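ok trying this again, last paste got cut off
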Amino acid sequence: MANPVIHFELWTKSPEKLGSFYKKVFGWKIDPRPELNYNIVDTQAKAGINGGILTPKHDEPWPGNMSF
């Protein structure tokens, strides 16, 4: 793949709730970093991407609910 995706971010008003969902459904490891307003996501994939979950600093509307 010429330009693979290497990182994603999921945007939400409820990062704890969204992190719990992905942890339960997919077994992802979520490392909360409250001092950064960020949650590091380890998808446990041997050959895949990892990412983060956050609440954007600006109010909605956001251009979407994720970025790559």
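PB: full thing came through this time. The domain at 7-67 is CATH 3.10.180.10 (2,3-Dihydroxybiphenyl 1,2-Dioxygenase; domain 1).
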